[in-house]
Design brief:
Largest sheet: 6 strands, parallel
Strand content: 5-15%
Low-confidence stretches: 144-151
Structural class: alpha/beta
Number of strands: 6
Distance between the termini: 42 Å
Radius of gyration: 18 Å
Order of helices and strands: EHEHEHEHEHEHHHHHHH
Length: about 230
């Protein structure tokens, strides 16, 4: 059973989400919060009881404390926490800030319930997920994208091995470690090692940032003989 915390200031939306999600036999809403401050307090209480939520569904624009600030505080206090941001296309700035704070997923609020449930399951397994169009908007606003457009490549990327460039290209498509392993005929352990080396070489925090960098330099990656 995947335990969920819903953070949404509009009660009617929160109740609707709860109803849709709890239809799924493997999803359970264990708490609700109307703003970021309540979310932080609730998560703290869950961790005190050693019963933390598996995934937090976090709205962005809320009173008292917004979702970005709440995400920052929760990820600082609980590095293993998994936060899924629910947003709109107009929230690119906030999504970027939440990404930097450690959020693991970004979806639009109008995502169909079946897709939302699948994303929650994927995030619970440790993957990062983007809604349609969000990754492209992040790439368009990231400083790395501007550098790529001026033909300047991110530091360290030309030092990657052939195999690491192959892995990076697959990360850009959103492939999981298992899918990368299958595509390149490697073990998942070897894939994890390659990803760790890529992050170190490019001075990145996680595979989400790696995906953004890879997409921003994809024309170069595709021209390289890998």
């Amino acid at each position: 059973m995947i335990k969920l915390l819903l953070v949404e200031d509009q009660e009617i939306v929160r109740r609707g989400l709860k109803t849709l999600l709890e239809i799924k036999p493997d999803l359970e809403v264990i708490g609700e919060a109307g703003n970021g401050q309540q979310a932080v307090e609730l998560v703290e209480s869950f961790y005190d009881r050693a019963q933390p939520p598996d995934v937090v569904l976090m709205d962005i624009r809320m009173p008292v404390m917004d979702g970005v600030t709440a995400t920052q505080r929760l990820c600082q206090q609980f590095p293993d926490i998994k936060i899924l941001v629910l947003t709109t296309f107009d929230d690119t700035k906030y999504v970027t800030e939440a990404l930097r704070s450690g959020a693991k997923g970004y979806l639009l609020k109008d995502t169909p319930s079946e897709e939302l449930a699948e994303v929650i399951r994927s995030i619970d397994r440790g993957y990062t997920q983007f809604g349609p169009g969000i990754l492209e908007k992040l790439i368009a606003t990231t400083p790395v994208a501007a550098k790529a457009q001026s033909t300047e490549l991110p530091p360290g990327i030309t030092d990657l091995t052939t195999r690491e460039r192959e892995v990076l290209r697959l990360i850009a498509t959103g492939a999981s470690n298992r899918e990368i392993a299958q595509a390149l005929f490697l073990s998942e352990g070897t894939v994890r090692n390659h990803i760790s080396h890529i992050l170190t070489r490019l001075n990145l925090r996680d595979r989400t940032q790696a995906a953004i960098v890879a997409n921003s330099v994809m024309p170069w990656l595709e021209q390289v003989d890998v």
